[in-house]
Design goal:
This protein folds into two domains: 74 residues, no CATH class; 240 residues, TIM Barrel (Alpha-Beta Barrel), CATH 3.20.20. It has 13 helices and nine strands. Helix 12 links the parallel strand 6 and strand 7. Helix 12 crosses helix 13. The structure holds pyridoxal-5'-phosphate and iron/sulfur cluster (SF4). Pyridoxal-5'-phosphate binds next to strand 1 and strand 2. It comes from Zhongshania aliphaticivorans. Keywords: 4Fe-4S, Iron, Iron-sulfur, Isomerase, Metal-binding, Pyridoxal phosphate, S-adenosyl-L-methionine.
Length: 337
């Protein structure tokens, strides 16, 4: 008999790990051997957008390092309370493209469903940190409206499950939703935008893979990884399972000051993603959401970094640098010169 390894990855279900998320900054800093006296967190920031991070993600942070690139993504700082010109609650004006609850339709041929309001991490730069999830937390009846909306529009061929994190919903819920989507003949592709393979790799169970596989849709999974340190052995295992199930795996990152704003970090990230069967897709300029200005990298600096990556990597490992603007018909690629 092969003894089960006595680690919490195996001994706790993903639901337990999710409800056991760290929400207390003192507890987080204690795990990392950091003293809150040295670098106070902001209670105001936590009031605005609560602290949330899984043990699995904290396990990838370096101890004793205030500048750890993973810690910086979740640490509530006083800087979040400063007002900056142009930083607003709904930078993408999604509320204008929200024809039925839970559905956002901005681009030709694809719609986005706010599948679940919950995330297993709260990224401080999140552009939906002020999103009215309560008004968009779809009941069964609301899904019917969203499904009708898609059914009535034959040009919609792709449905994107987003959130929150769609994989924070239980299998049965996803199964029901997928069955309804797969019953719409003109939908060919189902895409998931998820961070869980990085923050809660235990979510990728054989049962989940069955739910995703047992329908006629092509499955694309876009993970959200900003730094190579987010990919440890557990994440590698989860991604390998998704890859062998035949799903297309892509990554999107956000360019973040102090976290991944240098050429070496971005090159290592692309190479690491490729090792785990994930192709770089987008590198986003920060969305100007209130509270996130301290993460900003401007267009000039971003282009300079992109030129650096281009000179180091094969073309297929270079993500597209994009910016999202309200009212545009796609994300806008930034021209390099
Ligand atoms: C980003 C986004 C998409 C997907 O865009 P792609 O360029 O196809 O990746 C779709 N709908 C909305 C509302 C989005 O923000
Ligand atoms: S996982 Fe995505 S949706 Fe959730 S907080 Fe982070 S950036 Fe926002």
């Amino acid at each position: 008999m092969i003894p089960l390894k006595d680690t919490f990855w195996q001994s706790e279900s993903w639901q337990q790990q999710m409800s056991g998320m760290i929400r207390d900054p003192i507890q987080l800093l204690h795990r990392l051997d950091l003293n809150p006296i040295d670098h106070p967190f902001s209670s105001d920031a936590i009031q605005q957008f609560p602290l949330r991070v899984t043990e699995a993600f904290v396990a990838k942070m370096a101890k004793g390092d205030w500048n750890d690139p993973l810690l910086l993504q979740v640490m509530p700082l006083h800087a979040e309370s400063n007002e900056h010109l142009g930083y607003v609650n709904d930078p993408l004006e999604e509320s204008l493209a929200n024809p039925v609850p839970g559905l956002i339709h901005k681009y030709h041929g694809r719609v986005l469903l706010i599948t679940s309001p919950a995330c297993a991490i709260h990224c401080r730069y999140c552009f939906r940190r002020n999103f009215p999830y309560d008004a968009n937390n779809p009941s069964q009846r609301d899904w019917k409206n969203a499904i009708d909306y898609i059914s009535e529009r034959p040009d919609i061929s792709e449905v994107i499950l987003s959130g929150g994190d769609p994989l924070s919903a239980p299998d049965e819920y996803l199964q029901k939703l997928l069955t309804q989507i797969a019953a719409i003949p003109h939908v060919t592709t189902l895409r998931l935008h998820t961070r869980l393979p990085l923050v809660l790799p235990a979510r990728v169970t054989p049962a989940l893979i069955d739910v995703l596989k047992n329908n006629r849709l092509r499955i694309v999974i876009v993970i959200h990884c900003n730094h190579a340190n987010e990919i440890d052995e557990h994440t590698t295992t989860a991604l390998a399972a998704l890859h062998s199930a035949g799903f297309t795996l892509l990554n999107q990152s956000v360019l973040l000051k102090g976290i991944n704003d240098n050429v070496d970090t971005l090159v290592v990230l692309s190479l690491r993603l490729f090792e785990v069967n994930v192709m770089p897709y987008y590198l986003h300029l920060l969305d100007k959401v209130r509270g996130a200005a301290h993460f900003e990298i401007d267009e000039e600096q971003a282009k300079f970094l992109m030129n650096g990556i281009l000179s180091r990597l094969p073309g297929y490992l270079v993500p597209r640098l994009v910016i999202e603007e309200p009212g545009a018909t796609s994300k806008r690629p930034l021209a390099l010169s």
